[in-house]
């Protein structure tokens, strides 16, 4: 057995195959309430058989092998097979358009593609070059490709403990492209393993002793957040039981099945959960009940049970800023919701809150082994054990992304408080000047707006305009009702009051001229959100540019787009 210091992530997997062969590792829903369990023995056996097949294709060492699939057991099993066969994984977001699919496959020079569980394969298939070999995973739509099942049935398993070297590339993670073409972030086995070990130790230190590790995988595995804190962490901590979500419609049942003890999500989904609660009980009434000595505890447990989060002992929010009021709301319910901060470029290993070290509006302190500093212009600079090797085919960017002493330019602005907790204050490139000549940071203003229960998302802009403005996406339970004049009047009144409340907290140069209420939501499908549900700021600003003059000329501080 490899020593702890020399172990790489595959060594952990082989150890669990030998030491806990019958332990259930993955649970895959099949529809209609049916599930299929994959023990460590079965997981690794299937991976070994597919690895043997991949080796038979005589692909070059380090060949890029792509996965286009929603989260499922065979995403993880396929990645293990790729690594055993000497390859590098390239995961593609399952919601990407054909153009982006083609770009990633061609840019990475992928030698093969695994096609898995997908909702829109006919629209994506034109992005797959006709000459590229493809294999259909279980749960894939009809593709005509050779299937995973057929291959593993006829292929003997690869024996032994296939080894990778520390400096070989484990994966290319393509950024979600919120500011242009996706970039391929290179991570090697050494950094992936050491970072994952540290992440697992961090989580275990926060969780109460003896807590079983149950997780639900539903955020995209193509994104660094889910890949690092769930997939890779489950390979290093072999006691983790990974459940998968079947679909959006079955999400509540999927949560009830998994009863997760660790639950990670993104701000937009935390907000949706809250809005779902408010649709059943008004916020003011719930707040009153929570304050009652005996009834409050019963209500907390009932709400968390209804959300499927009653067993959660550690909850995380990351990927984007979350309104402080939202974190406080969950904490009032008794959920240990912590905020963290990380990037694709540091393998999601940078900052995190803990139960003891946390403050509203702060994303936490540097995690063990992370060095940070704030540059002269307020940018957060990070040196993490999970630091990227570089951008694939873009050595020209190295001088731009690293300081002379090896710190990474995050592009985020921030500041530390006396306890060493970091507060994000905006993006360097998102700062804009109005006609008043002073820079406005949109993120803090958007956080103030997003705290209102009527709002799902907002975008603050106003480059060169007399004053900043905000585009508002109303929450999904409210949107169908806005044709009702009474509802419209209520929304306008609420937004007028909100605008006054927000502007009272801002310096004059950052104050908003108006709120523009959108009738249609932003989505991944219409190109306004990235696959990880970040706002595509530049695209949205360009789309509304022709209407700005009329909005600024109109009367009133709340307008309908």
Automatic annotation (TrEMBL):
UniProt cross-references to InterPro entries, sorted A to Z: AMP-bd_C_sf, AMP-binding_CS, AMP-dep_synth/lig_dom, ANL_N_sf
Keywords, sorted A to Z: ATP-binding, Nucleotide-binding
Catalysed transformations (reactions): a long-chain fatty acid + ATP + CoA = a long-chain fatty acyl-CoA + AMP + diphosphate
Protein name, as recorded: AMP-binding protein
PANTHER family named among the record's database cross-references: AMP-BINDING DOMAIN-CONTAINING PROTEIN-RELATED, LONG-CHAIN-FATTY-ACID--COA LIGASE
Top-level taxonomy: Bacteria, Pseudomonadati, Pseudomonadota, Betaproteobacteria, Burkholderiales
Biological source species: Roseateles koreensis
Entry keyword annotation includes Glycoprotein: no
Gene3D superfamilies (UniProt xref): 3.30.300.30, N-terminal domain of ligase-like
Ranges where the AMP-dependent synthetase/ligase domain occurs: 19-392
Domain of life: Bacteria
């Amino acid at each position: 057995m490899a020593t702890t210091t020399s172990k790489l992530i595959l060594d952990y997997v082989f150890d669990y195959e030998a030491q806990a062969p019958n332990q259930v590792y993955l649970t895959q829903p099949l529809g209609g309430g049916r599930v299929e369990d994959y023990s460590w023995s079965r997981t690794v056996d299937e991976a070994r058989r597919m690895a043997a097949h991949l080796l038979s294709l005589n692909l070059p060492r380090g060949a890029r092998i792509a996965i286009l699939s929603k989260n499922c057991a065979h995403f993880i099993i396929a990645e293990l097979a790729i690594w055993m066969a000497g390859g590098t994984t390239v995961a593609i977001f399952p919601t990407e358009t054909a153009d982006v699919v083609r770009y990633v496959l061609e840019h990475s020079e992928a030698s093969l593609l695994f096609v898995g569980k997908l909702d829109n394969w006919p629209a994506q298939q034109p992005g797959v070059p006709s000459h590229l070999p493809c294999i259909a995973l279980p749960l894939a739509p009809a593709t005509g490709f050779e299937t995973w099942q057929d291959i593993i049935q006829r292929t003997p398993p690869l024996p032994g403990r296939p080894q990778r070297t520390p400096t070989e590339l484990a994966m290319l993670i393509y950024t979600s492209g919120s500011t242009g073409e996706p970039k391929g972030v290179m991570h090697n086995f050494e950094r992936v393993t050491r970072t994952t070990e540290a992440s697992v130790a961090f989580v275990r230190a926060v969780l109460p002793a003896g807590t079983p590790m149950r997780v639900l995988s539903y955020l995209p595995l193509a994104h660094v957040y889910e890949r690092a804190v769930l997939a890779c962490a489950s390979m290093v901590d072999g006691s983790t039981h990974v459940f998968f979500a079947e679909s959006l419609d079955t999400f509540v049942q999927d949560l009830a099945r998994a009863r997760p003890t660790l639950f990670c999500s993104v701000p937009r989904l935390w907000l949706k959960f809250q809005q779902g609660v408010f649709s059943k009980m008004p916020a003011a009434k719930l707040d009153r009940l929570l304050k009652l000595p005996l009834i409050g505890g019963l209500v907390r447990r009932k709400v968390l049970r209804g959300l499927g989060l009653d067993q959660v002992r550690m909850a995380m929010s990351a990927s984007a800023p979350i309104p402080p009021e939202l974190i406080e709301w969950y904490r009032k319910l008794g959920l240990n919701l912590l905020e963290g901060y990380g990037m694709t470029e540091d393998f999601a290993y940078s900052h995190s809150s803990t139960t003891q070290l946390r403050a509203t509006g702060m994303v936490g302190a540097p995690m063990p082994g992370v060095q940070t500093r704030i540059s002269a212009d307020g940018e957060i600079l990070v040196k993490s054990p999970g630091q990227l090797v570089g951008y694939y085919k873009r050595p020209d960017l190295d001088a731009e992304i690293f300081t002379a002493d090896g710190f990474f330019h995050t592009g985020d602005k921030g500041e530390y408080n006396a306890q060493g907790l970091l507060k994000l204050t905006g993006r360097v490139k998102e700062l804009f000047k109005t006609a008043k000549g002073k820079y406005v940071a949109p993120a803090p203003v958007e956080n103030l707006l997003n705290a209102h229960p009527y709002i799902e998302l907002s975008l603050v802009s106003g480059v060169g305009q007399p004053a900043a403005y905000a585009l508002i996406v109303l929450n999904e339970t409210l949107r169908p009702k806005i044709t009702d004049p009474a509802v419209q009047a209520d929304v306008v009144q609420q937004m007028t009051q909100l605008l006054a409340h927000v502007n009272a907290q801002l310096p004059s140069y950052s104050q908003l001229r108006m709120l523009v209420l959108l009738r249609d939501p932003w989505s991944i499908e219409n190109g306004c959100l990235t696959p990880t549900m970040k706002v595509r700021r530049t695209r949205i600003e360009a789309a509304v540019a022709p209407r700005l003059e009329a909005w600024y000329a109109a009367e009133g501080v709340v307008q309908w787009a």
